Amino acid sequence: MVRAIIFYVGDIVKSIYDMTFRGLEEYFLKLGEKKYKAVQVFEWIYGKRISSFDEMSNIKKSVIDNLKKDFTIGKLKPVKVERDELVNKYLFNLEDGERIESVLMRHDYGLSICISSQVGCNMGCKFCESGRLKKVRNLKTSEMILQIMAVEEDLHERISHVVIMGIGEPFDNFDNFKDFVEIINHPKALAIGSRHITVSTCGIIPKIKEFMEFPYQVNLAISLHAPSDEIRNKIMPINKVYPLDQLIQVLKEYIKTTNRRVTFEYILLKGVNDSIECANELCDLVRGMNCYINLIPYNETNNIDFKRSKKDTISRFYDIIKKRKINVTIRREFGGNISAACGQLRSEKEDL
Ligand code: SAH
């Protein structure tokens, strides 16, 4: 007997790319089929990258009919690609007409993609272009995965590193983020090593606690951007909900529990957080933690007033931290020419 188990995400039929390997095994068991079919399906959809379930020549018709009833298999196609020497920016149209962007960076260690996790963002960081548009919705797991696959298909090359630092706050879309990691890490899917995946959050403490229990060794980056509540409250509204002492406390717990290092991202904003005092305060704040500070020269945008710190100021800030023997780097800059740099991604419809 052919039985359909229909999965819906809101009103939308689930994509096959929303399914974890375990989820697919359960699906087949419920259908009275061998769970091994999950292996076959993963090989077809991630290995051979078929565009129709009918192409699965080693799967019987009744099962294919079920899959067709229960899932879609559509891909994301970029509607616009801007290409620079080491960076490409991709604009995607989603099924409901919303738009997101992804950025591909060519490093000496391989290709790295920066993907979006939401349409818009509710965190409201004052310096960030992506946050000017309120969150419209979370991205489905499939929409995150298909960003990677679409770019691989554009370049005919494999992507080895993924950062979840595009539009959105991934810890505000935590369940889909977890499924996303589980799937892209799976050897029969994209086989991206968990240590090659980095997630960045503005500091949603309850989710950092949950992330501690997450059984994948994904790198954690924290958008810190200020050494005191006084400054952080002014530029990052999330700090009023989860202030710095609590954030640092939970990160210490995270480092202790997972034995992993945390990355702090720190944008240098002229006259806001780039003084000698700020550098010293920052060192005091993270003293003794297994961490690494990534200083980010601010990318100015037309719509926002903050300015980039001068080169000398950035070097001075760097030197103070270095002298205190804390790991620090200045982020290499990518993508400014095509507005693909950090904080410049957006999802407004006037983009095309
Ligand atoms: N919401 C998550 C993920 C976005 S990551 C987070 O806050 O971490 C995007 C990174 O780029 C964050 O560190 C963000 O603070 C930074 N960013 C935002 N606007 C920027 C800008 N104009 N120049 C440089 N970095 C920026």
Q: Give the overall pLDDT as a whole number.
A: 92
Distance separating the two termini: 48 Å
Rg calculated over all Cα atoms: 21 Å
Can you tell me the CATH class of the largest domain? Alpha Beta
Profile the largest sheet. Answer: 10 strands, mixed
Low-pLDDT stretches: 1-11
Write down the domain tally.
2
Find the CATH superfamily of the largest domain.
Aldolase class I
Cofactors, ions and other ligands in the entry: S-adenosyl-L-homocysteine
Number of helices: 11
Largest sheet, order of strands side by side? 3-4-5-6-9-10-11-12-13-14
Report the CATH architecture of the largest domain: Alpha-Beta Barrel
Order of helices and strands: EEHHHEEEEEEHEHEHEHHHEHEHE
Which outline best applies? elongated
Describe what this molecule looks like in 3D.
Residues 1-11 have low confidence and may be disordered. The chain has helices spanning 21-30, 37-48, 61-70, 141-155, 174-185, 205-212, 229-235, 238-241, 244-258, 276-286, 311-323; strands at 8-9, 12-13, 78-83, 87-93, 99-107, 110-114, 118-119, 137-138, 161-164, 197-201, 219-223, 262-268, 291-297, 327-330. The strands form three sheets. Strands 3-4-5-6-9-10-11-12-13-14 form a ten-stranded mixed sheet, with helices on one face. It has a two-stranded antiparallel ribbon with strand order 1-2. A two-stranded antiparallel ribbon has the order 7-8. By secondary structure, the chain is of the alpha/beta class. Helix 1 packs across helix 2, helix 6 (205-212) packs parallel to helix 9 and helix 10 (276-286) packs parallel to helix 11 (311-323). The chain has two domains: 8-70, Orthogonal Bundle (DNA polymerase, domain 1), CATH 1.10.150; 78-338, Aldolase class I (TIM Barrel). The chain is built from eleven helices and 14 strands. It is elongated. S-adenosyl-L-homocysteine binds at residues 123, 125, 127-128, 165, 169, 200-202, 223, 265, 267, 296, 298-299, 301, 342-343. S-adenosyl-L-homocysteine binds next to strand 10 and strand 12.
